[in-house]
Specification:
Low-confidence stretches: 322-331
Domain ABC transporter: 3-237
Keywords: ATP-binding, Cell membrane, Membrane, Nucleotide-binding, Sulfate transport, Translocase, Transport
Structural class: alpha+beta
Largest sheet: 6 strands, mixed
InterPro entries: AAA+_ATPase, ABC_SmlMolc_Importer, ABC_transporter-like_ATP-bd, ABC_transporter-like_CS, CysA_C, Mo/tungstate-bd_C_term_dom, P-loop_NTPase, Sulph_transpt1
CATH superfamily of the largest domain: P-loop containing nucleotide triphosphate hydrolases
CATH class of the largest domain: Alpha Beta
Strand order of the largest sheet: 6-7-8-3-9-10
Bound molecules: adenosine-5'-triphosphate
Distance between the termini: 45 Å
Order of helices and strands: EEEHEEEHHHEHEHEEHHEEEEEEEEHE
Radius of gyration: 26 Å
Mean pLDDT: 87
Pfam family, one: ABC_tran
Protein name: Sulfate ABC transporter ATP-binding protein
CATH topology of the largest domain: Rossmann fold
Number of strands: 19
């Protein structure tokens, strides 16, 4: 089932939670709605589900307007952050619930329900827990059961709202890989809400980045990471350094070094977003910042903190370049983050407090 979200707006009082949001989800696709808290992810999901109405716009399932279709007739399965399992029912009965409450004419036989529930429990690899009660399960197991329960009624659309949000980091990691494999097996059109960039990039076919009630970018994980459509997307998807400078004839002079750009024609104030792993550092020797062309090719900085965990040294650097702002005031020391290989950091013999030359890699 494909989903088309057309020009949806939604306000709560005078707060605009969604502003003219449009989105197409292809049949069988797994989409992540990614954005900071309060950007409207859950509201959009609830409108798609039919749990909330929009002020304007429409949601189409396979081309059909769902505005007047009741939530129970939308063939939608849900999984929420807080396990919505029935505490007084066994795992088996929880998964069977949606089948047991079907009208008599549509309800499968007891034997068919048993077969279906056990095959779903096998699918989520928890068939050995069928007789347990929710209180006897771990958080991760509960979420897998919640997913099995959502799948029991064979939904055409699966909506997941921060399904792993309440779990610890290690379990989350395992479950997102597991969810991806499950999706590859089932291909149910799915929308997954998360505020965790890594989770969205790892799990989804396409990522929808939201900010303040609007969609900033829709693209594959590679597209949103490599080619962010806005400064917000750049910053939200990972650590980033913002440098200010001036663009002229295909190069941008920043606070200490120059970068080449593709655009020969742009002139004026410029910003450059540089990820920590795109920077390199060298021990500083006076004069080293002046390149062959006589221009500055690096930024002088002091290592304020060095966090070396595993293969990466994360360096927090304070720029000490006495650069002048446009109004001729000295720009305050800037915090720069650079990530280099831990081996290289050790070979260079660098320590906190040392002065280094920061260059683009
Ligand atoms: P989170 O990650 O924190 O869940 P979100 O991106 O899912 O955030 P929403 O839950 O969609 O955000 O909420 C968007 C905005 O709308 C928030 O500012 C929220 O306070 C507001 N909001 C949501 N539901 C209601 C409501 N029923 N009444 C009033 N305001 C609401």
């Amino acid at each position: 089932m494909s989903i088309e979200v057309k020009n949806i707006s939604k306000s709560f009082g005078d707060f605009h939670a969604l502003k003219d949001v449009s989105l197409n989800v292809n049949s069988g696709e797994l989409i992540a709605l990614l954005g900071p808290s309060g950007c409207g992810k859950t509201t959009l999901l609830r409108i798609i589900a039919g749990l909330e109405s929009s002020d304007s716009g429409a949601v189409l399932f396979s081309g059909h307007d769902t505005t007047h279709v009741h939530v129970r007739d939308r063939q939608v399965g849900f999984v929420f952050q807080h396990y919505a399992l029935f505490r007084h029912m066994s795992v088996f009965d929880n998964v069977a619930f949606g089948l047991n409450v079907k009208p008599r004419s549509e309800r499968p036989s007891k034997a068919q329900i048993k077969e279906k529930v056990m095959s779903l429990l096998k699918l989520v690899q928890l068939d050995w827990l069928a007789d347990r009660f929710p209180a006897q399960l771990s958080g991760g197991q509960r979420q897998r059961i919640a997913l099995a329960r959502a799948l029991a009624v064979e939904p055409q659309v699966l909506l997941l709202d921060e399904p792993f949000g309440a779990l610890d980091a290690k379990v989350r990691k395992e479950l997102r890989r597991w969810l991806r494999r499950l999706h590859e097996e089932l291909h149910v059109t799915s929308i997954f809400v998360t505020h965790d960039q890594e989770e969205a990039l790892e799990v989804a076919d396409r990522v929808v980045v939201m900010n303040k009630g609007r969609i900033e970018q829709v693209g594959s994980p590679q597209q949103v990471w490599n080619d962010p459509a806005s400064p917000f997307v750049y910053g939200f998807l990972g650590d980033v350094n913002l440098f200010k400078g001036r663009a002229e004839k295909g190069s941008v002079s920043l606070q200490g070094f120059e970068l080449q750009t593709d655009d020969q024609n742009q002139t004026g104030d410029a910003f450059a977003y540089v990820r920590p792993h795109e920077l390199d550092v060298l021990p500083y020797t006076p004069g080293a910042e002046i390149g062959h062309n006589g221009k500055s090719n690096g930024l002088i900085a002091r290592i304020d903190r060095a966090i070396v965990v595993g293969p990466v040294a994360r360096l927090e650097l304070l720029s000490t370049n006495a650069s002048k702002g446009a109004d001729n005031t000295t720009v305050a020391a800037t915090l720069i983050e650079a990530h280099i290989a831990a081996d290289r950091f050790a070979e260079l013999g660098l320590r906190e407090g040392d002065t280094v030359l920061v260059t683009p890699r």
